[in-house]
Write a structure and sequence with these properties.
The complex is a heterodimer of chains A (320) and B (319). With 320 residues, chain A is mainly alpha-helical. Chain A has helices at 14-35, 38-55, 59-86, 89-97, 99-130, 137-149, 152-163, 178-202, 206-214, 219-247, 251-256, 276-286, 288-312; strands spanning 259-264, 269-274. In chain A, strand 1 (259-264) and strand 2 form a beta hairpin. The longest helix of chain A has 32 residues, at 99-130. Chain B folds into 2 domains: 2-222, Rossmann fold (3-Layer(aba) Sandwich); 228-315, Nucleic acid-binding proteins (OB fold (Dihydrolipoamide Acetyltransferase, E2P)). The chains are: A mainly alpha (320), B alpha+beta (319).
Chain lengths: 320, 319
């Protein structure tokens, strides 16, 4: 259906093309799944990527690159799709009926949200500073990115020692408490928020800001009317990545606080809730179906928020 | 009137670049800062706009503004890369400054004056370079600044668009006090009432446009404004050239005249509406406009008074 034209965007409607490729991939996956031969789909996906590479007319390198890229995409997407197909709707519904599962999902969204708000509140102004040169900027940049290379269980331990009992904030409950959970999540997710915001600010044309000043806008007005609107996509992207990273955190949470007392609005009172990633690992030994169901729910929430914000921050709203 | 005597040093890890200029722009006058890339033209303009810290004084219509932030200087800036607000429509771009200026002009009237009224609802990203620069110009005009600073506003445009917009700029700036930065001597000659030639962050010469072009103060100014520089002693006697280091503009050299000095046509290059010929005359090389054939013999003459003896030629930095 697409072989008659090159993928140069001129002769084929891009959106229709993406839909067609996606439909073929879904159909192939379902057939392989029905046959119980997942290897067939993996092979099909890589071969179809090679075909698309050939149709794109980028030469042998294009075909090889499409093959390799296709293999990577399969490695990224196939496990997630498998997870969704393994979980039956009944098991997901049954899992969602459990109060502890619902509390887990709530905490898994709520605590990362608090962590993201904290990292953005503290990190976005820092990102604004980091786009201009100042003595020691490389040091600050390295410090911001340091959590990326610290093993997360080590990060959890460090947070516990620094901010736990006898630490920097003596009155702050850290071990086994929401503040500790949020601090641990903020520690591991802050680099994404700061780097995303910095990239957003760096895309703002310096001359556009100068033009605003020369037109009478104060420094603050220039930030409000020019810098912020132009950088908001980067800031939001960084916040989403930061939030997603926090949702997926396991190591630091397992050390600092994974089972906490949190106010749960549907119940109107404080309840005990376990963080999602820890819940999934613990539940695997107890109730495999429930673990998979919770994993699918977490995945669905993350993907939904990710797609929603990505759609909101896209320039064109097109798929391709 | 814009009067300034400013200095600033710009440092990076390896180098320091100093800019210093003491100039006056009279009311309604367009002063061109003409110079090669890296001569400090744009930096000087940015100093005046308040975008960099600097020493010295700037006075606009009798008001000292050297300590004022950019928004309080009363200076409009037109950027080479347009610097439009891509998240706003064309009309919103032009009207951006009306919030801060009670006597602002009507944005729609300005758009109409510049021939882009039909673009008011468009996004700047959808416009051509010429259209973008007209919007940027309208935006600057809208707030009625006391002076305009224009940083190579035409250099990113194709030739036909550049010429049309240049003509419009001459009209728009006719009664405005403006400093216009360019590296293009043709543009400078077209738009400037006076020209200041910059080199290495310093003013090499300032004066009325024709004076700078016809009576350059240094070899650098002469060559940058398009004149040929030769030593008088290298020319044949028939040219009646004075002694010393001489500058002569191509349009003053007559080729193929009856009583001229012998010359050999070395090269002919078609330039827009004329042929630019390189001539070997005695031991010197001159450039003129002519329809002579390449590799032929001809004659040249320079009317008396068209030779310009460069003052301080021996002490010029190029020597």
């Amino acid at each position: 259906m697409v072989a008659a034209a090159r993928f140069d965007g001129s002769s084929v409607d891009r959106r229709a093309l993406v839909l067609a490729v996606a439909a073929v991939q879904v159909a192939a996956f379902l057939v392989a799944d029905a046959l119980g031969r997942p290897t067939l789909y993996v092979a099909f996906a890589v071969v179809s990527a090679a075909c698309l590479g050939a149709l794109a007319d980028r030469g042998p390198f294009g075909i090889v690159a499409a093959c390799l890229g296709g293999a990577l995409l399969v490695a990224l997407v196939y496990p997630l799709v498998t997870l969704v197909t393994v979980a039956s709707p009944e098991s997901v519904i049954a899992a969602l009926a459990r109060p502890d599962v619902r509390r887990t999902l709530y905490l898994s969204v709520y605590a990362p949200l608090l962590a993201t708000l904290l990292t953005c509140f503290l990190g976005v102004p820092l990102a604004l500073l980091l786009r201009r040169d100042f003595p020691g900027r490389p040091v600050v940049e390295s410090l911001v990115d340091l959590p990326l290379v610290v093993p997360h269980s080590v990060a959890g331990l460090a947070v516990l020692l620094a901010f736990g009992e006898g630490g920097a904030f003596p009155t702050l409950p850290v071990l086994g408490a929401v503040p500790g959970l949020v601090l641990a999540l903020a520690f591991v997710s802050a680099p994404y928020a700061v780097d995303g915001a910095r990239e957003g600010f760096e895309t703002v044309d310096r001359d556009a800001e100068r033009a605003a000043r020369s037109l009478g806008a104060s420094r603050f007005e220039t930030f409000r009317r020019v810098t912020a609107p132009l950088a908001v996509r980067g800031v939001l992207s960084g916040a989403i990545l930061s939030w997603a990273r926090a949702v997926s955190e396991y190591g630091a949470v397992a050390v600092v606080a994974y089972n906490v007392s949190v106010f749960y609005p549907p119940a109107g009172e404080r309840v005990q809730a376990m963080f999602g990633s820890v819940f999934v690992v613990r539940e695997l030994d107890v109730n495999f179906d429930a673990a998979v169901a919770v994993a699918v729910c977490l995945l669905a929430v993350c993907v939904a928020v990710f797609l929603a914000v990505r759609t909101l921050t896209r320039d064109t709203g097109r798929w391709a | 009137m814009l009067r300034f005597d400013v200095r600033a040093a710009f440092r990076d890890d390896a180098t320091t670049f100093d800019v210093a200029a003491d100039l006056t722009v009279r009311d309604g006058e367009t002063l061109c800062l003409l110079g090669p890339s890296g001569s400090g033209k744009t930096l000087l303009l940015e100093l005046l706009a308040g975008f960099h810290e600097h020493d010295g004084s700037i006075e606009l219509d009798g008001r000292p503004i050297e300590d004022a932030p950019p928004e309080a200087r009363g200076i409009g800036f037109v950027f080479q890369n347009y610097a439009l607000f891509s998240h706003l429509s064309v009309r919103e771009n032009v009207a951006f400054g009306t919030k801060y200026h009670e006597n602002a002009r009507d944005p729609d009237a300005l758009l109409a004056r510049l021939g882009v009224a039909d673009l008011a609802e468009r996004s700047p990203d959808t416009l051509s370079g010429g259209e973008k620069q007209r919007i940027a110009l309208a935006r600057a005009l809208c707030v009625r600044p006391d002076a305009f600073l224009l940083d190579e506003p035409l250099s990113a445009l194709d030739a036909p668009t550049r010429e049309r917009l240049r003509d419009d700029l001459v009209d728009v700036l006719a009664d405005e006090t403006a400093v216009y930065v360019t590296h293009d001597r043709t543009t400078a000659r077209a738009v400037a009432d006076r020209v200041a030639v910059l080199r290495d962050g310093r003013v090499a010469q300032v004066g009325p446009t024709e004076t700078v072009f016809e009576r350059p103060a240094t070899r650098f100014v002469a060559e940058f404004t398009g004149a040929t520089v030769v030593a008088g002693s290298s020319l044949p006697p028939g040219l009646d050239a004075p002694t010393g280091l001489l500058a002569v503009r191509p349009d003053h050299i007559r080729v193929g005249v009856a009583e001229g000095a012998p010359a050999h046509v070395e090269r002919v290059v078609r330039e827009d509406a004329a042929y630019r010929v390189t001539l070997a005359v005695g031991d010197a090389t001159l450039v003129a406009y002519s329809s002579a054939e390449p590799s032929t013999e001809t004659t040249v003459a320079v009317p008396s008074g068209r030779w310009h003896v460069l003052p301080d030629g021996e002490r010029d930095a190029d020597e």
